[in-house]
Design a protein that fits this description.
Blueprint lengths: L1 H19 L23 E8 L3 E2 L3 E4 L5 E4 L3 E4 L5 H14 L7 E6 L2 E7 L5 E5 L3 E2 H7 L12 E4 L5 E4 L1 H6 L6 E2 L4 E4 L4
Parallel strand pairs: 7-13
Antiparallel strand pairs: 1-2, 1-3, 1-6, 4-5, 7-8, 9-12, 10-11, 10-13
């Protein structure tokens, strides 16, 4: 009998703590960050080699393949996806020096154009150039804003890696902490309200 009372009190305390103890999930915009300085599958890369005494060589363009590699001038295939641009520059520079192609070389790698897309109930659907950190509300505004038939409470975000999220844009308009970041390769869909 004492055991039952203790167990009941413990369960009730846990229940009150979880539901009534002021536990609030973090705002939606705070638990996801967009890392846009990482090379992704499908990115186009611009490679410049600067050799002392010779100046910069012409930029070469490379595409990151579905296997995450790029086929670089003189070096062949190298893994690039998932690596920060600065780290990849150092790796490529070291490879050119270690393989005796150059005694000294500076490698500069820049991303080509990156995109995200917006569809559904916005005034101008389509692909948008990703020029730096942005959010769902800014992306929708850049597409001419919502149509009159938009369901602003159930905006769908499909991340480049296939993960899906739903955002309440009405809540985000009132509190910017609920606005979600958009990354290159993401897709926003604004559904039609019923």
């Amino acid at each position: 009998m004492i055991w039952n009372r203790c167990f009941s009190a413990l369960v009730l305390s846990a229940f009150v703590l979880v539901l009534g103890g002021g536990c609030v999930p973090p705002p939606e915009g705070k638990n996801f960050t967009c890392v846009d300085d990482v090379i992704r599958v499908g990115d186009s890369l611009s490679l410049s080699l600067i050799v002392p005494g010779e100046g910069a060589t012409s930029d070469k363009q490379f595409l990151v393949g579905s296997d995450g590699t790029v086929n670089l001038y003189l070096l062949g295939s190298m893994k690039a996806a998932g690596v920060k641009f600065g780290d990849f520059e150092k790796t490529v520079q070291r490879a050119y020096i270690d393989q005796n192609y150059f005694k000294q070389v500076t490698v500069v790698i820049k991303p080509g154009e990156r995109f995200y897309s917006v569809g559904g109930e916005v005034n101008v659907k389509g692909r948008q150039v990703y020029i730096g950190q942005t959010t769902v509300l800014r992306a929708i505004t850049s597409c001419g804003d919502f149509t009159e038939f938009a369901n602003r409470r159930r905006v769908e975000i499909t991340r480049a890696d296939g993960k899906r999220e739903v955002m309440d844009c009405k809540k985000a308009i009132r509190d910017p902490n609920y606005d979600r970041p958009i990354c290159p390769g993401d897709h926003i869909n604004v559904p039609r309200s019923l």
